[in-house]
Automatic annotation (TrEMBL):
It holds the Pfam family DUF1330. InterPro entries: Dimeric_a/b-barrel, DUF1330. PANTHER family: BLR0684 PROTEIN, PTHR41521. Residues 2-95 form the DUF1330 domain. Signal peptide: none annotated. This is DUF1330 domain-containing protein.
Amino acid sequence: MKAYAIAYLRNVRMGADIVEYLERIDETLAPYDGHFLVHGAKPEQIEGEWEGAPIVIEFPDCDHLRDWYESPDYLEILPLRTENSDGVVIFVEGVDRKHKATDVLV
């Protein structure tokens, strides 16, 4: 089942560190077959309050996602982001195309 790293970043302080992070993150994703689904797009706010940037990275499964996040290459650049932005990151497993909303009731 596909797995996703979802970030909600706020107060990104653009500077040399964030630029370096952006220049290096793709090379950390490649060995784990991770790729951006959402990155850099301005969200259209429909309900509630939202201030920040949504980011969604897809991986083949949870093992690939965790291996990427815990990899030496990613851990090396992680502080470039965490020390220059506020945010929340979650990992979540996807559902297949046959999933129905009521499936969570079982």
